[in-house]
Amino acid sequence: METTILTVNNVWMMICTALVFFMHLGFSFLEIGLTRRKNTVNILFKNFFVITIGLLLYAIGGFNLMYPGFEEGEGILKFAGFGISAPEGGMGFGYADGGYTWWTDFLFQGMFAATAATIVSGAVAGRIKLTSFMLFTIFYVGLVYPIVGAWKWGGGFLDQMGFYDFAGSTLVHSVGGWGALIGIYLLGARIGKFDENGNPRVIPGSNIPLAAAGVLILWLGWFGFNGGSVLSADPTLTSLTLVTTCLAAAAGGVASALFSYVMYKNYDLTMFMNGVLGGLVGITAGADQMSPTDAIIIGLIAGIIIVLGVAFIDKLKLDDPVGAVTVHLICGIWGTLAVGIFGEMAGIDQLIIQLKAILIVGLFCILCSFIIFYVIKVSIGLRVNKDHEIKGLDISEHDGMEAYAQ
Amino acid sequence: METTILTVNNVWMMICTALVFFMHLGFSFLEIGLTRRKNTVNILFKNFFVITIGLLLYAIGGFNLMYPGFEEGEGILKFAGFGISAPEGGMGFGYADGGYTWWTDFLFQGMFAATAATIVSGAVAGRIKLTSFMLFTIFYVGLVYPIVGAWKWGGGFLDQMGFYDFAGSTLVHSVGGWGALIGIYLLGARIGKFDENGNPRVIPGSNIPLAAAGVLILWLGWFGFNGGSVLSADPTLTSLTLVTTCLAAAAGGVASALFSYVMYKNYDLTMFMNGVLGGLVGITAGADQMSPTDAIIIGLIAGIIIVLGVAFIDKLKLDDPVGAVTVHLICGIWGTLAVGIFGEMAGIDQLIIQLKAILIVGLFCILCSFIIFYVIKVSIGLRVNKDHEIKGLDISEHDGMEAYAQ
Amino acid sequence: METTILTVNNVWMMICTALVFFMHLGFSFLEIGLTRRKNTVNILFKNFFVITIGLLLYAIGGFNLMYPGFEEGEGILKFAGFGISAPEGGMGFGYADGGYTWWTDFLFQGMFAATAATIVSGAVAGRIKLTSFMLFTIFYVGLVYPIVGAWKWGGGFLDQMGFYDFAGSTLVHSVGGWGALIGIYLLGARIGKFDENGNPRVIPGSNIPLAAAGVLILWLGWFGFNGGSVLSADPTLTSLTLVTTCLAAAAGGVASALFSYVMYKNYDLTMFMNGVLGGLVGITAGADQMSPTDAIIIGLIAGIIIVLGVAFIDKLKLDDPVGAVTVHLICGIWGTLAVGIFGEMAGIDQLIIQLKAILIVGLFCILCSFIIFYVIKVSIGLRVNKDHEIKGLDISEHDGMEAYAQ
What pLDDT is recorded for position C52? Predict the structure, then answer.
């Protein structure tokens, strides 16, 4: 390939990498915004841990685990030392298929890896022990995410059976979502979330402006998440992808806002925000395959799913403070199925393949996260004690550090 | 045109699109930061509505309304269905003149469209009914903005008479500013803004850090707003544009800070912030036509205009909580005139053309926004009742959702 | 050079410029987040002053002072008028060596210039007179920074003796750090920082979420700070630089978090955050010279330095509210030395050169900042009076403007 176009592709991929990195601020803001003030420092600590340890683990082993063929192929990526060896001669500077460097490839994929655990972080907020969460993160980001990723993006069996997941409705969002589901199931609800009759109570978020900022930052990050998943700067594919991404986000938000108004006679900002996220997760599996009209329909349905999903999770007596299961798991499933229903790949055969992959990934993630969480539960314990939970984790886990002191 | 340069242009335009999108976080932060806490959720809801419905309306019709010639030209953009039809064959992937895809063109312009209503949102904060604002937004973004845009950027009569407005001092900022002016005139001031003698009182902003962040985010977004208005990645034009944009912002801020210190013996951060924004709006019409020295002078004058303009609006007994009329309308007029005074196009003939266009756009926007607001006022009403206003719109319009709960 | 690759380089450099600009929001958030609420408006005012006056001063003279050879070479950059003359003919549009326009070069470097004073701003927060800080900024950004920069990046004697400082561990971060050190030495500690026995007390930060956001924004900005210092879009160098930058940040954060846990049995978020910044500063001098493994080791050591450095500064009875001296000066020195220890340039000769340059720059900055601060101290005074400090600078310096009103 000609040098200049390689340079352009690489520039685009680096920018997308930066945008996906920035999503970690979006997740942080969303999580602290939608939860109680007394757990703010704790949640931020978890977010810092996820992005930093996530990158390190991906360098040490995750990247090679996920893209196994590349070890021999180029000779530079070895599951030894820190995974990516030193730049000796020109070897470290080979180009990946899409026409950008291995370094860029590693960093872009590394930013994705950390996302999976971040999704779990929000769901388990306010009652999980910090050490327990950190242990879970190490195994989930270091092993589970790259193994599942290898099945499709690493050219594994899901790829060979024709499964399509453009930017990770299943491989990223559902993987995180399943972990979140098992986590909140094993942890139980926060004290006070359900009244004596089992009816859910609203535990208000402590900083709605930051939560809203988080959603807009995540939307911005999705320019890179989906746009970068083209793996080149191909003008038509990247720009179509951004159009479908933004229209699905817009449609998801409007649908959630209106549908929740119809249901509850209230202009609910949290629903609006989660609707935007639902639209984004929903379009992710097929963002390069859809027309703008398809994207709007996928987003509208995702928006309605958000409203119903949040009520459904409540019905199950599960406590998901930020709506992570609904946004990332249910809309992730919806988006993965949508590839078989809309766009250029639509067809019953494809739909069945998509369904199969959802089930396989789902079973694997349920199993893995159950084992990890369960072993932690019976060894060091999963949940802080009642007193600590009531006073807030910032006190018990962080020596009383206040999020908003005078 | 050669493929690689098309790819580069498209990458640049996509990045600028992302930056303009991000301005919606800037506007959100600025508005909630400079207004009272009790209306925070309401303002955020409005901002989410503007960006989401704005994009959808632009897809459904706005883009075709604004760029009418393109419907036939390329055959893909039809004022039917969702405006941009599905990608059939290669048709959807044609290139716009500047050398980037239609998809990119649509998305970049769509981000601009939503801006106009956002400007109004800040000015009418704290007393407008949510439903009324949403209705206004639909008409203003869906119809008024693209009609005015078509006159110049769509190749209409303002373009043919030689009017120059590089990135929208008039077409975006003044269009928003006129809507804001009519809105605050018809709504009246917030309770408590003027004392019994008609003297203005300061209603302090509730989150100055977020307001300041909003200004810096808007400045960042202006890299895309102006830089992308080159409509290609042409190195000299884009980089000159960024230099003039940043120098005008810097000069505007410093001028406002110093001039307000001279006037009021106070280092006023809000003036500093609005001075930066004034400089940005002021340079927007001619950012690609000015030398750095011109840019600094334009910014300095914009900064002084900000201080005088805010006092003038107060004098008129108009209540503009965020200074939107001064920043976007008055500095928008200033910037549009500056094209005839400074830079490569300076000249009395050009100045007269600029003035004419300001008047024409002004009359049209005043008329349209008056009609829209007036019809809303006499039908469903424009303003919340006194009790709701005092308690705050977060209670009356959003079921008591708190912005900053414990 | 071929036009297309020039365009690509220029696009990359403009994006990096935007990212470095955005670091000013990161610094603002970090500073207000880690200091007391009563000084918030004051700190934001200082940050706005630094970025605006910094750009203007760099246009008026700094750029030409720092890159003296360029004045004649191209004929467009003259130390007269506003430094960068108007675009006459094609002259203003020449290309700098790296293949991007002079405009881009000016703006990228201008964003760096403002950084030096911002580093000082955090350290002296809460007790410095606003006017005094503004005066210091004018001299430090307008003269000291470009003079030191000229020694290396302008091709001066440090460059000729073989000193290597890729993106400014010394030229930016240490320059700021020395100013911070002298500032806090001459100012003295905030009231209440040390008890009667001289033991340090924790003065808690007022907005940890914004501080955390500041760190993530700074990390994002470092994509541009280091990535842009390649001065072209060269795929291998830029992408390797981003990889080393991110791995050092991650390693720094993890090391600080764990080491401070070992030392103090507390999961300390502030240490985690400063560890990330320490890793970033540490890698900056050699980000294009290191393997990923080197980068991780450099980051780990930086993380440990942070924990020890903060304790050491306390021991010296110096009061540095945001840890600026530890992060920018000590880790800046570490990163500069690391070029002689790790990576492609490692060697005892290089190490000695690095050390020499550190000492020369250090002596010059100590001298300059001492003179500037001292002259201010004996003329208009450096520190606000006790009463103003206790009530907070937002009251005394900004007419009682509240950061977070109702």
Answer: 97
Q: What is the pLDDT of residue B71?
A: 44
CATH of domain B3-397: 1.10.3430.10
Which residues of chain B make contact with A37, given a CB cutoff of 8 A? Answer: 405-406
A3-396: CATH topology is Ammonium transporter fold (1.10.3430)
Q: Is C101 on the interface with B (CB under 8 A)?
A: yes
- Cβ contacts of A171 within 8 Å, gap of 6 or more: A148, A149, A152, A153, A165, A361
List chain C residues with pLDDT less than 50.
71-93
CB contact under 8 A, C93 and B240: yes
Within 240-259 of A, beta carbons closer than 8 Å to B belong to: 240, 242-243, 246-247, 249-251, 253-254, 257
Using one digit for the tens of pLDDT, what is the confidence trace for B257-314? Answer: 999 999 999 999 999 999 999 999 999 999 999 988 899 999 999 999 999 999 999 9
The pTM (predicted TM-score) of the whole model is: 0.96
Residues of A within 8 A of B130 (CB-CB) are 267
HSE toward the beta carbon, residue C333, CA cutoff 13 A: 16
CA-closest candidate to residue A277, choices A240, A297, A305, A318? A305
Which ipTM did the prediction report?
0.95
CA distance C7 to C30: 35
Amino acid at the residue C369: S
